[in-house]
Amino acid sequence: MKIKIVLEPSDDGGYTVYAPSLPGCISEGNTKEEAKANIKEAIELYLEPVEDDLAFSENHEIMEIAV
Length: 67
Hints:
Elements: E1 6-9, E2 15-18, E3 26-29, H1 32-47
Antiparallel strand pairs: 1-2, 2-3
């Protein structure tokens, strides 16, 4: 999966980075590489399902698809 990110120089030094398609998914880093690594981790956590969100019927089936 590919997600577009926006990387901007921060007023305090370093970089701020966010994923516009994922509201509230934002991170920062001292270098561009660090900021990109941090937003990658933030995106993975953002997309990870939370157990409270999982409510299944008795006859449920869990599958994975690539997007």
